[in-house]
Specification:
The chain is mainly α and 127 residues long. It is built from four helices and no strands. Helix content is 76%, strand content 0%. α1 runs antiparallel to α2, α1 packs parallel to α3 and α2 runs antiparallel to α3. The chain is elongated and about 50 Å long.
Length: 127
């Protein structure tokens, strides 16, 4: 599988899950979780969908940046989606508060992904 197809496939799956999670949060959670937790769910959806678009954007810039840094950017965005958004989803559904301690690791993955993209743009050295 090429980097392009992996990024597109990952973004498509993440987009599907993000939209489904958004709909579930808007229509299915209201009567099942503490209303104070709904903004946490919405934050998870927002960051997932933003970084889903970032994964797609990587395909568009792939020809213009260092491929190794691009791969790391995609991996880090994907890890951020799973760790940041995933931990928030599970926190809301389970009310297990310690999961909030994992969430910043996903945030760091997002930041590192953006940094890798910046480095990729500055080092168009191919592989």
């Amino acid at each position: 599988m090429t980097i392009h197809s992996a990024l597109i496939r990952g973004a498509a799956i993440s987009g599907f899950v993000g939209v489904a999670a958004g709909a579930f949060g808007a229509h299915g959670l209201k009567n099942h979780v503490d209303p104070a937790l709904l903004p946490i769910w919405h934050t998870a959806v927002l960051y997932q969908l933003i970084h889903t678009l970032a994964l797609l954007m990587l395909v568009g810039v792939a020809a213009h940046v260092n491929q190794q840094a691009l791969r790391w950017s995609g991996r880090l965005f994907a890890a951020g989606i799973v760790i940041f958004s995933g931990s928030l989803y599970v926190l809301v559904l389970s009310n297990v508060k310690w999961l909030g301690a994992i969430t910043p690791i996903g945030g760091v993955c997002f930041l590192a992904g953006w940094l890798c993209l910046a480095l990729a743009a500055g080092s168009k050295g191919g592989q």
